[in-house]
Amino acid sequence: MPRIAVTPVLIGLNVAVFGLMLAGGVDPMAPTVDNLIQWGANYGPKTTNGEWWRMFTAMFLHIGILHLLFNMVALWNVGGLMERVLGTTGFVVLYLLAGLLGSVASVAWNPFVVSAGASGAIFGVYGSLLAFLVRHRGMTSQASLAALRSNTLAFVGFNLLYGFVQEGIDMAAHLGGLAGGFLCGFVLTQPRIQASHTRRHMYSTLVGLLGLLLLGAVALRLPHVEDVEATLQHFVSLNTTTLATFKQAIARLQQGQFTTTAAQQQAEAELVRILEQDVLPPWRAQRETLLRLQSLRRLPHRQQQLVSALVEYMTARQEGWELLQEGLRNHDPRALKSANEKQRQADQVLGQRSPVGKK
User: Fold this and answer.
1) 42 forms bridges with which residues in the sheet?
2) Given 103, 106, 115, 119, which residue is catalytic?
3) d(C-alpha 323, C-alpha 149), whole Å
4) Helices in 136-260 by DSSP H: which ranges?
5) What are 30-40's pLDDT values in tens digits?
6) Residues 20, 12, 203, CA angle at the centre, nearest 5°?
7) 165, 256, 275, 289: least CB-packed within 10 angstroms?
């Protein structure tokens, strides 16, 4: 192809999306996690629970202007060449399938990473160049072959090495895009297909459709991931309402003027009923949810600490309420004293870690 059209359009789309983010008040150097998720970043708890479109939109988001600049320079350096090799349709197919495979790999490897950027797709373009060099090594001049091979291996090698030693790099997306690009490039650069423009267009379209079906099938088989942030926010709401219910019941008991022992026992029985029916059931259910989160692998360290603190807090609070029930039913002062100690322990855990409401 004498001219290219797709590469400039892709660069323009990435720049335009970044411009819209800036217009929306996003920090140009360091967007927050919430900003990225709001704009469509790939995040397992949301992606695997119905927001599959994030695997596509994440390909056009970038985590700061330096991230955008580096990716767009890399895309410009190799995109035009591979667009000429594959044609317009083939290049679009390559870019999208490689980027989507990178998104799938990211969620499969670590679903709690917020992933964004065109890196997976760009690694795919370099992967297709590697496939082209392998398939056509006998049809290219040795000087051109050596230059292309050196440049490609330098880019891929440096970025893979940098990704392994630098924290915060989504290596799963890079490797997934690289593998997807190599496969697409190997399939789409067959000499007999390249010889005919019409045949190349039809073949590329077929490869794109089959690739999308395959990726869709793989994505739908990914396990659903618990939304940690939503669970923590639910805890905040539950903690507020449950403590309010308990404190109101305690206040009524303490303010009551009991003229007979039977009246006092009736009030205590009402408190036991409130604990049994209104307080403990939702509390136990929420604690079980947090215990499941605590057992998840690859949960980010900050969230792991937060979940562990909340489990400790909820356990102490629950044990205190259960001891209070026992003490009221059996008129056991030792159980009542232990219940108060558990409640103080729960307050200390919450005060030391201050986990509630932080993101």
Assistant:
1) 115
2) 119
3) 71
4) 142-165, 171-188, 191-194, 197-220, 228-255
5) 899 889 999 99
6) 125
7) 165
Q: What is the pLDDT of residue 356?
A: 37
CA atoms within 13 A on the CB side of 65: 7
Quote the mean pLDDT of the chain: 85
Catalytic one of 115, 128, 174, 204: 174
By three-state DSSP, how is residue 42 classified?
A: strand
One-letter amino acid of 112: F
DSSP 260: S
**pLDDT digit string, tens, across residues 61-70:** 999 998 899 8
pTM exceeds 0.70 for this model: yes
Stated length of the chain: 359
How many CB atoms lie under 10 A from the CB of residue 182?
A: 21
Instruction: Place 292 in a pLDDT band, splitting at 50, 70 and 90.
Output: confident
Tell me if residue 119 is catalytic: yes
CB 99 within 8 A of CB 151: no
